[in-house]
Amino acid sequence: MSTQIVLYDIPSAHPHNAWTPNTLKTRYALNYKGLQYTTEWVEYPDIESVSKDIGAAPTGNKPDGRPHYTLPAIRDLSTGAVISDSTKIAAYLDRTYPDTPRLMPARGFGLFCAFGDAVYPLLDPLFPGAYFRRTREESYGMPLEALAPTGEAGAAAWQKLRDNFGKMDEWFRAGGEDGPGVYMMGDAVCYADMWLAAYVLWVKLLLPEKWENMKTWHGGRWATLLENLEKYETVV
User: Fold this and answer.
1) Which residues, in sequence order, are bridge partners of residue 27?
2) What percentage of the chain reaches a pLDDT higher than 70?
3) CB-CB contact of 40 with 105 (8 Å)
4) Burial of 173 (C-beta count, 10 Å sphere; 0-12/13-18/19+)
5) Short-list 117, 116, 113, 109, CA closest to 91
6) Pairwise CA distance, residues 28 & 81, whole Å
7) Fewest C-beta in 10 Å: which of 31, 62, 124, 178?
8) How many angstroms separate the CA atoms of 141 and 43, rounded?
9) GST N-terminal domain: which residues (predicted)?
10) For residue 143, cis peptide bond before it (omega within 30 degrees of 0)
């Protein structure tokens, strides 16, 4: 089967261009599977209209109850499918292209949903919620460094983040049969690694001063994770 997939992503002024964690998850997945795809860049204010145009489902509801549309989304020209939500996209790719490397173990969708639910609270110190939501809704091009709190609050948030990553480091250590695992499931890459690497890459790209500190955490685990997945970062 010939494959052509369109990935809908949000652009930035950064040289890497791809920058948002959720769309980075899908980019990792597509590159890992070796599937042919192109990127259509969608400015943040246009996400809802483009999603409706291509038939992408909303991924939640706004506070007033209206549908909320987010990226990533993919449109698979070989099957006609349009999928939104990065984890649902990963499950679709495994199901539709079984001859490519798997992202999730068989029947593992529920497990990875639970993984996301467990990890999101651990990442909270990265995002001062109200400011992040307000400015992101205004424009994707805000000064992203401003997302990091400063002063004593910033130091406390960063220490909390390090402690939280320490919990995830324990998960990796438990993944190896003969010692600390390189990946979440030992020596084999899975979607959980890409999921977490997307947030680590976000820090590296947009908060470089913070990255200089983070890359030393837990024996350099997070720098090593990015190095191992670097070949799947390609932006096309």
Assistant:
1) none
2) 83
3) no
4) middle
5) 109
6) 20
7) 178
8) 9
9) 10-101
10) no
* Amino acid 89: pLDDT: 97
Whole-number Å distance between alpha carbons of 148 and 19: 16
Name every residue whose Cβ is closer than 8 Å to that of residue 191 and which is 6 or more positions away in sequence.
25, 29, 87, 90, 103, 104, 112
What distance in Å separates the CA atoms of residue 190 and residue 203, rounded to the nearest whole number?
21
**Cα–Cα separations (whole angstroms), residue 154 to 99, 147, 161, 163, 220:** 46, 10, 10, 14, 22
Compute φ and ψ for 61, nearest 5 degrees.
-130, 145
CA 109 to mean position of chain CA atoms: 16
Take residue 117 and report the two structure tokens written for it: 């639910």
pLDDT in tens, 68-80: 999 999 999 999 9
Distance (Å) of CA 91 to CA 27, 87, 101: 14, 6, 12
Q: What is the CA radius of gyration of the chain?
A: 18
Domain architecture of the chain: domains with CATH = 5-96 (3.40.30.10), 109-232 (1.20.1050.10)
Task: Judge whether residue 224 has pLDDT over 60.
Answer: yes
The answer for residues whose C-beta is within 8 angstroms of residue 133's C-beta and 6 or more apart is none
Residue 52 tokens, joined: 């409706």
If one compares 126 and 48, the residue with the highest pLDDT of the two is: 48
pLDDT tens string 175-214 = 665 555 688 888 889 999 999 999 999 999 888 888 999 9
